[in-house]
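Worked Example 4.2. Consider the chain below.
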Amino acid sequence: MFQLTPYRAMLFIDMSSKKLLPAIAMAVSAMLMPLAAQADESDWSIGVYAGKYHDAEPAGALAGRANYAEHYMLAVTGSKTLWRHSEWPIAIELDGMLGQQAGIANLTEIAVAPALRWSGLPWRDTLRTDIRLAPLGLSYTSQVGPMEAGPDGRGSRTLNYLFVEAAFSRPQSKDSEFFVRLHHRCAIYDLLNNYGANGEDFLSFGFRRKF
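Applying the procedure from the previous section yields the following structure tokens:
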């Protein structure tokens, strides 16, 4: 009968470690290794996206807890790369948008935010998938929309601008991106105002071209 002695247990752990650690190291290095065409990345982009309003914050939308309303947004967006790491697939971009909302109310929004772009997902040689995150920005609307007004009817036209985005492109044509964006305006948990309203959220789909 086979018995697991302390010596055999230590030998098994040692052999497993020899197999597991290189695999972990390869996975980490694949995510951190420089992109082959890093020097050829374009610094500017312009695009367009359309979205539908929902009543949940980005985390709620990702968890499937959002309720949608017949309120829409069409926007143009542009970005400029401010900094790109020479070795890691990380960049900082300045992203701006100009959008028109219609449905429950008609209003215009303009927003700008610095965004972090991560391009190091391990399957990028098959389908390039970039994650963009902009937690702090500035958004201004032409009027306080009914979805942003508190119980007393008050609200702020200037709020924080946040977005979370996943962008997809072919490795051989990375200058053309399709993207999904969670577009969010908020008071940063009542830091900017305490009117008791969530702000506005849109689940959006778009396309951009880099140049």
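The longest strand covers residues 68-84. The longest helix spans residues 6-32. Compare this with Example 4.1 before moving on.
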